[in-house]
Write a structure and sequence with these properties.
Shape: globular
Number of strands: 0
Number of helices: 12
Mean pLDDT: 87
Low-confidence stretches: none
Largest sheet: none
Helix content: over 70%
Distance between the termini: 23 Å
């Protein structure tokens, strides 16, 4: 891989990870069309995703920091309640338990955990299917057409008002399943999860925040699962620096795109991306049969 190819794919990753047009679908299509060899492709993919993850941490740093703090406090309260449970059993007392989920950020933490569970299950069970789907233009093309439909639905859905307190755990499960399905190349993770959030009645700004923060455990979990594949791959050390350049570009472009998505969702401009996904999807399907 050359430096220019790394920069190009980094920009594509940053653009398509947060804009609702599917990063995995575009990378699969481009690598198939231009026969780009990454000489350790799994490592490069992980580094690109880490770049976009950095962008999420920068944009939502205050929310993420509060969530981390509340998660630690929640763990402390759970340990306290366990101690109370033991004492009540031993001494036959009725000591009161602490309420663990008692503010919006704690509820947000639990919602993210609930959404992550079905994502992890679907991603793990469909690992081989996802890998095979990336080797053809047909599956990304079909999935891009599905993304186009979801984006139109997101634009036309009734305005929701749900924030963390009003969002149910059932809603979180639905969103997690949507993210799990979006591991297929061509099915936009951000588009699918934001559409699922809006269909569940969430406030539009909160839907964007939920979608992007939900990507953190998904990306980290996928990276952990792929470590064994990275170790098994032949990696040319001279390529690692080139990969890092692509990672930096994916972070910078990703930051810009997150800010853009806040405007897109608020002003209901998904239709433009729906048209784009339709065109690229049709071109990918045509390429599968005629190239």
């Amino acid at each position: 891989m050359t430096v220019l190819q790394s920069i190009f794919l980094g920009i594509v990753q940053g653009l398509t990870e947060f804009l609702p047009v599917s990063s995995s679908g575009h990378l699969a299509i481009l690598e198939n069309l231009f026969h780009i060899e990454t000489d350790g492709g799994m490592l490069f993919d992980i580094m690109l995703h880490i770049g976009t993850l950095v962008a999420v941490f920068i944009v939502y740093r205050k929310d993420i920091w509060k969530m981390i703090c509340e998660a630690i406090f929640m763990f402390g309260d759970i340990c306290h309640n366990f101690r109370i449970f033991i004492l009540n059993k031993i001494h036959k007392t009725s000591l009161k338990y602490k309420r663990v989920v008692h503010n919006s950020y704690r509820k947000f933490v639990v919602l993210i955990l609930v959404s992550t569970f079905p994502t992890a299950v679907i991603g793990y069970l469909g690992e081989n299917l996802i890998s095979d789907a990336s080797d053809t233009l047909l599956i990304p093309g079909i999935c891009l057409l599905i993304t186009a439909v979801l984006l139109l639905m997101a634009d036309t859905v009734q305005e929701g008002k749900k924030l963390p307190r009003e969002t149910s755990y059932k809603n979180a499960l639905v969103i997690g399943c949507a993210q799990g399905c979006a591991t297929l190349p061509g099915l936009s993770r951000s588009g699918t999860t934001i559409a699922a959030c809006l269909l569940c009645g969430m406030d539009r700004r909160f839907a964007v925040k939920y979608s992007f923060i939900l990507s953190i455990p998904a990306v980290l979990g996928a990276a952990v699962l792929e470590v064994k594949d990275v170790i098994a791959e032949p990696i040319v050390m001279s390529q690692v620096g080139i990969y890092a350049i692509g990672m930096v570009f994916s972070a910078v472009v990703g930051y810009i795109c997150i800010k853009t998505m806040l405007v897109v969702v608020r002003k209901k401009k998904f239709a433009y991306f729906s048209v784009y996904c339709t065109l690229v999807g049709l071109l990918a399907i045509a390429g599968h049969f005629f190239l």
